[in-house]
Amino acid sequence: MKNLKKKIIFLIVLAMLFVSFFIFSFTEVMMAISVIAIPMIIVIIPIYGHAKGVKVYEVFTDGAKEGFQVALRIIPFLVAIFLAISAFRSSGAMDILTWILSPITNSIGMPGEVVPMALMRPLSGSGALGIMAELITTHGPDSFIGRLVSVMMGSTETTFYILAVYFGSINVRQTRHALPAALTADLAGMIASVVVCHAIFG
Amino acid sequence: MINIIWLAMIVIAVGVAGIRCLGITISPLGIYLVPSFEPLSQLTNGVFEYSKFAVELAIGLVGLMALWLGIMKIAEKSGLITVIARGLRPVMVKLFPEIPPEDPAMGSIIMALSATMLGLGNASTPLGLKAFQDMQKLNKHKNIATNAQCTYMAMSTSSVTIIPATIIGIRSAAGSDNPTDIIAPVIIATVISTTVAVVMSKFLQRLPRYQVENFIEQDEENNNEKS
User: Do B181 and A133 count as a contact with CB atoms less than 8 A apart?
Assistant: First the structure.
């Protein structure tokens, strides 16, 4: 009985999504999901927590304390990457690299400016974050490039780091197909980001 | 690796700026030089300006990170993550056929992937390590990765992300009108990449060159060389 209820709710949600695609454009539906997500989460999680007897206010402040540390922790990485990137850009070297790679990147609709971040992403999370932050400040967060790097950053991972940490922790030396599978997934994430961003933000 | 890239970028940048200082100009009258220090001083200004930006950006991030980590702490303490994990179980049993459904490894895989989905970031790494240790208990050849480990690896590096918290923070710190408008595209892109991850790992694990047997010999050779 409980299962049936869940299935019905699931079907209703699916049907609503399906119908909404007819009434509104794809872009409008996606924008709506993006806008609704945060308010829903900040109301549902505390209500659920309260219902489960969690002291919501105290636990919230407890977790929030860590926010300061996270931000402080990334400052050295941001400064280091900003140094390299800003030197690379203001010297004109970036223009040369972008020009060399433009035939490849243009063919999949990726702006040349984004290429350094795509190359850095699997190697270093803080490095890619630095490049993303730099591109966002230079081009503006609401520009196409600003949104594209945000989506790329959100849909890929520091594959080499995770591979080393996870397999290293259990002493596995032969990783078999883990790396090719993970890197293909990263590449798929990059291309998907470009395509989805063109479809939504065009 | 990152050390080399970082150094190379700075060296190339200063080199390019230096060459531009010579002011090599090609015109119908011939090639001649118009030296100036302009490119190098541009570089200095750029570097100084951006190091200031880096700190401003990080400080702007504090508030939103605090907000998000606070909310996630409530989710963690209230056991919401366990509830989500329960919902994902039927799918996970199909994705990891090698792992018995009631094995503790299944539980820890689900917990770790749910944490990544919610953008818990650093908090999800210990859960991932736990999942790997539990999977290792089912591993017959301790030095060789199992199919389940490879599938998990590919899935966690491409994981479906619902809330990319840090990215939203940086966008907001940079003055975006709508810092969260990337949520839906991120969900779509990660659904695609996770699908590719699962399909690829299931496909590759069948290829002759990735069979466990091949690696047993290699592994023994490595051991002999060491001893």
Answer: no
* Nearest residue to B166 via CA among B124, B195, B126, B197: B124
CA distance B153 to B155: 5
| A170 in the same domain as A143 | yes
Q: Tell me if chain B has a CB within 8 Å of the CB of A101.
A: no
| ipTM of this complex | 0.74
> Closest Cα to residue B70, out of A40, A56, A73?
A56
Give residue-wise pLDDT tens across range B132-149: 888 999 998 888 899 999
Summarised one tens digit per residue, pLDDT across range A144-171 is 999 999 999 988 887 877 887 788 888 8
B158 and A129 within 8 Å at the Cβ level: the answer is no
Together in a domain, A81 and A143 = yes
What is the predicted pLDDT for the residue at B147? 92
B94: buried, middle or exposed (CB in 10 Å: 19+, 13-18, 0-12)?
exposed
Helix/strand/coil for B28: coil
**How many domains is chain A partitioned into structurally?**
2
Domain annotation covers residue A59: no
What's the CA gap between A102 and A109, in Å, rounded?
10
Q: What is the pLDDT of residue B204?
A: 92
Q: How many domains does chain B have?
A: 1
DSSP B172-187: HHTT-S-TTTTHHHHH
Q: Is A129 near chain B, with CB under 8 Å?
A: yes
Chain B residues with beta carbon closer than 8 angstroms to that of A170: 132-133, 136
Distance CA B84, CA A5 (A): 17
Closest residue in B to A45 (Cα) is: B75
